[in-house]
């Protein structure tokens, strides 16, 4: 149980990143009219929403209180996305991909900060799911060229 507090802290950091991703996709979707593009972005948003729920549940199981908002990352993501919104869909996709890069990097960097079952959860569920979402968005970006 000694690691539980640190695990909750790290999982909450991941949770804030996932909440930020959901918020950023929601904002981007408000500026996308192409149905194919919308569908792909909605799929990515749903992936992040699923991870938000999984993280909240895991944090509660560890006796922690899940973060409610995205914190600093949400503010940063909103600024990046706001700039992208002005410049169009292609730039918005680029900004979303950068967010996916950041999320993937966070999981890879901090996976060893959690212990036992929490580490298995990150390695076997969250990290592979983030890689799939990242790849989905990268494929989408390549189709826009």
TrEMBL record:
Highest taxon of the lineage: Bacteria
Residues in DUF2383 domain copies: 8-109
Residues in the signal sequence: none
Lineage: Bacteria, Pseudomonadati, Myxococcota, Myxococcia, Myxococcales
Protein name from the UniProt record: PA2169 family four-helix-bundle protein
Transmembrane segments: none
């Amino acid at each position: 149980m000694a690691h539980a507090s640190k695990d909750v802290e790290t999982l909450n950091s991941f949770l804030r990143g996932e909440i930020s991703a959901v918020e950023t996709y929601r904002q981007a979707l408000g500026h996308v009219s192409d149905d194919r593009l919308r569908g792909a972005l909605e799929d990515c948003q749903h992936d992040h929403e699923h991870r938000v729920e999984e993280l909240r549940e895991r944090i509660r199981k560890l006796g922690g209180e899940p973060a409610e908002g995205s914190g600093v990352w949400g503010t940063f993501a909103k600024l990046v996305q706001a700039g992208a919104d002005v410049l169009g869909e292609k730039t918005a996709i680029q900004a979303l991909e950068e967010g996916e890069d950041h999320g993937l990097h966070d999981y890879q960097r901090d996976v060893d900060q959690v212990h036992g079952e929490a580490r298995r959860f990150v390695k076997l569920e969250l990290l592979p799911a983030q890689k799939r979402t990242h790849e989905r968005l990268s494929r989408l970006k390549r189709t826009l060229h």
